[in-house]
Design a protein that fits this description.
The protein is mostly helical and 181 residues long. The protein has six helices and two strands; from the N terminus they run ββαααααα. The protein has three domains: 40 residues, no CATH class; 84 residues, no CATH class; 42 residues. Helices cover 61% and strands 2% of the residues. Strands 1-2 form a two-stranded antiparallel ribbon. α2 packs across α3 and α3 packs antiparallel against α4. The protein is elongated and about 85 Å long.
Length: 181
């Protein structure tokens, strides 16, 4: 392991030693040296760069990932899905499928955990609304419409038609992207 030449070196390991802060150089992408539990992030970065080196992989990543608050976690989900797809595409026969089952299962479970984590984070950040909350918003919108149209002849028929459309829209709502008309 390499020692820092300057004690103020920003790459100095943050690990504690009996005589103060560790004097080793931290691993790439980590705040700690290997002796203090740091692991180099260089292999992961190289893998990511390798996976994105092909134009089709970059395009595929863009298809899987959405640009929202949990961008990093979404990138990890997209990369894991790309690995699943790539591993599955290597299957040529039943024997290949059987030998791939273990790694595919691990990758699928990883995606499941990442998606659950992203969902929990998005929910805690308030970027997701439960269906019940969406229904309450729909009810509030309907009440606003009733209040505004009250006094117009036959407003009940108009309100009923609008409420029917709002309820149908809320009932069909999901997290898929909306196509522009």
């Amino acid at each position: 392991m390499q020692l820092v030449t300057d004690l103020a070196d920003p790459h100095r390991c943050k690990g504690p030693k009996p005589d103060g802060q560790c004097r080793n150089i931290a691993e790439v992408g980590s705040a700690y040296c290997q002796a203090c539990g740091g692991r180099s992030q260089a292999p992961a970065r190289r893998l990511r760069q390798y996976l994105l080196a092909k134009a089709q992989d970059s395009t595929r990543l863009a298809q899987f990932a959405e640009h929202e608050d949990v961008k990093s976690l979404r990138d990890e989900i997209a990369l894991t899905r790309m690995l699943i797809e790539r591993r599955f595409n290597l299957v040529r026969d039943d024997a290949d499928l059987i030998s791939a089952c273990g790694s595919l299962n691990t990758l699928i479970l990883t995606v499941e955990r990442l998606v659950k984590s992203a969902h929990v984070i998005e929910k805690s950040l308030g970027t997701l609304l439960a269906r019940a909350a969406v229904l309450r918003v729909g009810q509030q919108i309907c009440q606003i419409i009733v209040d505004r149209l009250e006094g117009i002849p036959n407003y009940e028929q108009i309100v009923d038609a609008i409420i029917t459309d709002i309820v149908a829209t809320v009932s069909k709502a999901d997290n898929s992207e909306v196509e522009s008309a």
